[in-house]
Specification:
The protein is α+β, with helices and mostly antiparallel strands and about 160 residues long. The chain is about 30% helix and about 35% strand. It has three helices and eight strands.
């Protein structure tokens, strides 16, 4: 199954690039709650309403190396459930960051997953679970933008 969503960021691409790449550990820690291994492997929660206990699932997230794509860049992501994984799919996604003019950027997440449990899981996905996956992606993008806009002093550089 494919999921796709995007969100605007009221920051120029250079600031988004700096904040994501120079401070990826801190940003992802804020988004995912607890990071380890220098920001590459993360343990956190995702869900349709964000990391709300009881309404989200603990996941292990892998953040790949950024790749330039024109004026923007792409960061590969993968997340999978922790604990019993048979009921939860693995999500493979790309977070693409592109400029929308001089003072605005766009974060776009496109990903895919295979519903668990064979034919029953595919039916459940069509009925409800795909909507939850889309809401989870939307919530993750919103959390990421909030973290980008926080601009902690430790992330500030000249003109950033």
């Amino acid at each position: 199954m494919l999921v796709y969503d995007f969100i605007r960021v009221p920051l120029p691409i250079a600031r988004v690039r700096h904040r994501l790449l120079a401070a990826v550990n801190g940003l992802w820690q804020h988004v995912a709650e607890a990071a380890y291994d220098e920001g590459e492997d993360l343990l956190g929660r995702v869900g349709p309403f964000g990391p709300v206990p009881g309404l989200s699932k603990a996941v292990s997230m892998r953040v790949g190396n950024a790749r330039d794509r024109g004026e923007g860049f792409v960061i590969p992501l993968q997340w999978s459930a922790t604990g019993p994984t048979e009921l939860f799919p693995v999500m493979l996604a790309d977070l693409e960051i592109t400029p929308l003019g001089a003072d605005e950027s766009q974060l776009r997440l496109s990903g895919s997953y295979d519903p668990p449990l064979g034919p029953i899981g595919r039916q459940l996905d069509r009925l409800l679970l795909h909507q939850l996956a889309e809401a989870t992606v939307r919530a993750l993008l919103g959390q990421l933008v909030a973290a980008l806009l926080k601009n902690p002093a430790s992330q500030r550089g000249p003109g950033l």
